[in-house]
Amino acid sequence: MVVRVQGMVWSQWAVVLLLALSHMMAFVDRFVMSVIAAPLKRAFSLTDTELGALQGLAFAMAYAAVVLPLGRLADRVAPKLLIVGGMVVWTLASASCAFAGSFGSIFAARMVMGMGQAAFTPAALAVIGGLVATRAAAGPLSVFTAGSTMGKSVALLAGGAAFSIVSAGRLLHGLSASAPWRSVFVLTAAPNLVLIALLMTVQDCPQPMRARQLNSGVADWLRQDGRSFFSHAAVAIAPIILIQAAAAWTPIFYARYFGLGVGQSALLVGGVVLVAAPLGHLVGGQATMRLVRRGVAPGVVVAAILIVATPVAAVFCFSPLLYLSLGAYGLLVLLLGVAAPAGLAGVRLLTPSRHLGAGNGVFMGLTTLIGVGFAPTLVGWMNDRWFGGDRGLNLSLITLVIGVSVLGAILALVFARGWTQSAQVIEKAESGVMARLIGDPMTATLEA
């Protein structure tokens, strides 16, 4: 008997869940540095700008440089090769950070990690995009994106716990004796080995329609329809900028303003993110599916979230009460989590199936370069140059929130109508292509 859930069989959901867990571990390795930012800063005598560059720019530059060619490759080869290969590369790079002897060596390791994750993400998104119909993609995508936010919370919880344990000298004595923060990189990378083994047992992952089945190339598509795609990408990136900046700096924010220890700050923030982020992503996925079916552009959902997020962020940044600030931060994470699946669903609707790998590569490259790379580094730079160092972090964060929210909301409302028209054109073309592929010339003629 075949059991279906929201149009997908259980075996397909198993693939989605395994990819979501792998996505989670990608974000654990990416964000664990935010847990040990304070001791890392002391160890290498870093400025906030350099610390932000390690958390974001080092990873993002390499990711953005290779994600487009790797995304195009995901349309042509078995995605499993890129998924497993990418995981092996980033796992080794993450663990190697434990042995870094300088700012330059840890920067280089973070760049290699970015290359590995650039292979994984477009291939995984292409697999998910090939599993479901276009307008049903928001549900599985919300599960996948929930993996990323779970990764942030697991990075904080596991990283905080690991730092506390090794600081007490109970584990990895060789590394912890020199600096407890080094052991954290090894401990958080280790679970990837289990996931790599599981992915190796999966049969060939399903792909969307191969590029060779249709004539037009990626360049032609972007030249003809790129305006809608890139305008939506600009809107979809706005909440991701805020998510990434907050994830990079919140643990050290609470350590600086409320005097919390490294482990305590990470555990508190991780507990908040663990509850708020997946809830936001899952709610966002369901809400987006319903709204898209009614003809509402996902960008409008993003605009509404950005408008509400600004006053919530102000409470988070300026409340003198720890738990009020934590509550506002949790609400901010939830709201931005609602916006993330809407952004990804819009990319799926605006990308022909034959170019899903390349389209995801373009989007993830822009997202990573701007959101992951630019945002944390900009916060650190503003803090060093404008707002007076350690005690100006709240001003740096709220400045970023206001600027990004206003610009993102304006762009979303301006481009909403054009987005809807482009999505309808692509959906009609996809229906005609599918009819030709399954040998129904009458339907293909009617849909063309």
Give a verbal description of the structure:
By secondary structure, the chain is mainly α. It has one domain (9-200, 226-447): MFS general substrate transporter like domains (Growth Hormone, Chain: A). It has helices at 10-35, 37-44, 48-74, 79-96, 103-131, 138-167, 173-178, 180-189, 192-201, 218-258, 262-293, 298-318, 322-349, 356-385, 393-437, 441-447, and strands at 4-5, 8-9. Strands 1-2 form a two-stranded antiparallel sheet. α1 (10-35) runs parallel beside α4 (79-96), α1 (10-35) runs antiparallel to α5 (103-131) and α6 runs antiparallel to α11. The chain is globular, with a radius of gyration of 21 Å. The two termini are 36 Å apart.
Summarize the structure.
With 448 residues, the protein is mainly alpha-helical.
- Strand order, main sheet: write it out: 1-2
The chain-level mean pLDDT equals: 78
Pattern of helices and strands: EEHHHHHHHHHHHHHHHH
Radius of gyration: 21 Å
CATH class annotation: Mainly Alpha
Bulk shape:
globular
Oligomerization category of the chains in this entry: single chain
Q: Tally the helices: what do you get?
A: 16
Q: Would you count the extended β strands for me?
A: 2
What fraction of the residues are assigned to beta strands by DSSP? under 5%
CATH topology: Growth Hormone, Chain: A
Low-pLDDT stretches: 1-8, 208-216, 432-448
As a percent range, the share of helical residues equals over 70%
Please state the second-level CATH architecture: Up-down Bundle
Helix and strand composition category: mainly alpha
Total number of domains: 1
Instruction: Please describe the biggest sheet, giving its number of strands, its sense, and whether it closes into a barrel.
Output: 2 strands, antiparallel
End-to-end Cα distance, whole Å, is 36 Å
CATH homologous superfamily designation? MFS general substrate transporter like domains
